[in-house]
Amino acid sequence: MRRYRNVVYDNARWSGFRFRDGDIVISTPPKCGTTWMQMLCAMLVFDAVEFDRPLTQISPWLDMQINELAGVIHLLEAQEHRRLIKTHTPLDGLPFDERTTYLCVGRDPRDVALSFEHHMANLDMDAVMAARAAAVGLADLEELGPPPSPPAADPVERFWAWAYAEPGAAMGPTLSDILNHLRTFWDRREEANIALFHYSDLLADLAAQIRRLGDALGTEVTDDRLEEFCAAATFERMKQRADDVVPEVGNRIWRSNREFFHRGRDGQWRELLDMEGLRRYEDRVAELVSPDLAAWAHSGWYRADTAPASSLLS
Fold first, then answer.
1. Taking phi first (over 0 means left), then psi (-120 to 50 degrees means alpha), and beta for anything else, what does residue 164 get?
2. Domain 11-313 grouped into CATH 3.40.190.10
3. What is the pTM of this model?
């Protein structure tokens, strides 16, 4: 497996993990709808919209370094239901098991960049580092290199620093990181136990995407249940239930649980980039991935097949 490691997570924690028949691995770049997909999977697995414990306990993040690995493994081993395992590690950094379903969710990377800025503003880094120190210690931080320089005050300048940064250059995902993650799934999208979803498609037709997810998981959804699931998984309903569904709620790492759900919409980047900037961005994406992956990564399944070559400019 390729090694993926930063201050927050380390995919070496997957070493020796024992899969079971029916396991589900939810592998997404950060801020691409991870919690949303965890919620949808949990509803399908339990055939319910309310759960007896927080979502983060139902679907733990295995490679997150603010929890002791032994505790996470014990939690997963004790689960008798179909297991849902969260990760932000790309597919080439995960052990591959034919009995497991691997799910990926993409999102327009420009929206990810802006969403992650809000994410970091809402994150209590003192709480994160205290939890990390208790779970794995801090002795390895020197191996990860110096901390990143403070971000520029100008949001446009911050955007271009993100767009041209090297992979793994920051705690959050760079453009290169996001597109690499999606590419590891895109290149294997025809395999039976791999399914790709997109944030834009979930926004456009949640019911159809839940049915599609049910097909991927081998789970039937009745019309009545589908209506309940759609109502329970809206952005506003998730925000109302933030204390039950935000990641790592027990570690109290968020300044506001509700603000973990910020805007939840597409196209935030339009407030930032002019036409010249969009052309520059399109050129940068073309350096990193193929045109078909670029179209899907920015548009989703509904629009990618019909999107014009200049779709990133719209």
1. alpha
2. no
3. 0.93
